[in-house]
Design a protein that fits this description.
The protein has 318 residues and is an alpha/beta fold. The protein has one domain: NAD(P)-binding Rossmann-like Domain (Rossmann fold), CATH 3.40.50.720. It contains nine helices and 13 strands. The protein has helices spanning 16-27, 84-89, 91-112, 148-168, 192-202, 221-232, 250-261, 285-291, 299-317; strands spanning 7-11, 31-36, 55-59, 74-77, 115-121, 172-177, 180-181, 206-209, 215-217, 219-220, 239-242, 247-249, 267-270. A seven-stranded parallel β-sheet has the order 3-2-1-4-5-6-11, with helices on both faces. The protein has a two-stranded parallel ribbon with strand order 7-10. It has a two-stranded parallel ribbon with strand order 8-13. Helix 1 crosses helix 6 (221-232), helix 5 runs parallel beside helix 7 and helix 5 (192-202) crosses helix 9. It is globular and about 55 Å long. It starts with 6 loop residues before the first strand and ends with a helix. The structure holds uridine-5'-diphosphate. Uridine-5'-diphosphate (UDP) binds at residues 83-84, 179, 190-192, 195, 207-209, 214, 216, 250, 272-273, 276. Uridine-5'-diphosphate (UDP) is lined by residues 83-84, 179, 190-192, 195, 207-209, 214, 216, 250, 272-273, 276.
């Protein structure tokens, strides 16, 4: 391992975002220590890093004390289930990783004098009554509904991060991540992008929940990771939205997937899950001003790359 390199720690390192973030950090010249307990992450996402002497992987549950020797300069706390069906299945782990896990990751940052960045979420805004959502909006969250375990845990994570900043003077950042997609998402994670692409590629009907009038705004993963890296290098401590403001209904999204995959499959309607947000669109004025960042990858390009990834994945899986 090179001695002069700065060390970054990524929790949730084998996940969709954690693995892409790791690739960027290595390209930026960091040594990276990745931590994951593989509850929702997958080693396949980081298998290309095998043999890289600047990378180390530790299989560890960050809700337990994190014991790392040596210097650490930057910590990215990305460990958490992030799909509604995952956190419905494992609500207690979801609550623990963003509460106990965030506490441990902050404790590590404090012990090492490291900068700390937490992956927060647009779910902090719940089913929003303000549209698009600005960082100043406090949200409309049902704490005891099926999404409460995720939303409230992330809101707690923001609160404890600000407390460490205010009490201990820790250099902290908070990114509120909006719907993001791209290669390395889990095909079966239940989220709408892999669900529709998987259905289209396997010749099954596309399952639109409710009447499909609910909206989302989808950001390609490389844009998101570039924004997060810029935030980590900034001097700003309050939450910053990172996402793509291009908004569409879920029905329009289903039609776009059929068009881009060249499929002629039916769309079937299923029950709308409880507390499913009716609209979601980031206001990224702050990120534009503060970081000089905005998304670059068009919806068409991003989806085409993602479809190509899932095509390969299905071929390899057989
Ligand atoms: N959705 C859908 N069909 C699916 C999966 C999801 O219509 O097979 C809808 C879901 O109800 C929500 C939107 O797509 O309105 C985005 O869902 P996702 O699970 O990707 O994440 P969310 O943005 O709700 O956290």
């Amino acid at each position: 391992m090179s001695l002069k390199k700065k060390t970054a720690v990524v929790t949730g390192a084998a996940g969709f975002l954690g693995s892409h973030l790791t690739d960027l950090l290595l390209a930026e010249g960091y040594r990276v220590v990745g931590i994951d307990n593989l509850v929702t992450g997958n080693l396949r996402n980081i298998e290309h890093l095998a043999g890289n002497t600047d990378y180390e992987f530790i299989n560890h549950d960050v809700t337990k004390f994190i014991d790392l020797p040596g210097e650490v300069h930057l910590i990215f706390h990305f460990a958490s289930p992030a799909s509604p069906i995952d956190y419905l299945k494992i609500p207690i782990q979801t609550l623990k990783v963003s509460s106990l896990g965030t506490h441990n990751a902050l404790g590590l940052a404090k012990a090492k004098g490291a900068t700390f960045l937490i992956a927060s979420t647009s779910e902090c805004y719940g089913d929003p009554l303000e549209h698009p959502q600005k960082e100043t909006y406090w949200g409309n969250v049902n704490p005891i509904g099926p999404r409460g375990c995720y939303d409230e845990a992330k809101r707690f994570a923001e609160a404890i991060t600000m407390a460490y900043h205010r009490v201990h003077g820790l250099d902290t950042k908070i990114v509120r991540i909006f719907n993001t997609y791209g290669p390395r998402m889990r095909l079966d994670d239940g989220r709408v992008v892999p669900a529709f692409i998987g259905q289209a590629l396997e010749g099954r009907p596309l399952t639109v929940f409710g009447n499909g009038a609910q909206t989302r705004s989808f950001c390609f993963v490389s844009d998101l990771i570039a924004g997060i890296y810029k935030l980590s290098q900034s001097n700003y401590h309050e939450p910053v939205n990172i996402g793509n403001p291009t908004e569409m209904t879920i029905l329009q999204f289903a039609e776009a997937i059929l068009r881009i995959t060249g499929s002629d499959l039916p769309i079937v309607n299923k029950d709308l899950p409880q507390d499913d947000p009716k609209v979601r669109q980031p206001d990224i004025t702050l990120a534009r001003k503060l970081l000089g960042w905005e998304p670059k990858v068009s919806f068409e390009d991003g989806i085409t790359q993602t479809v190509a990834y899932f095509r390969d994945f299905l071929r390899i899986k057989g």
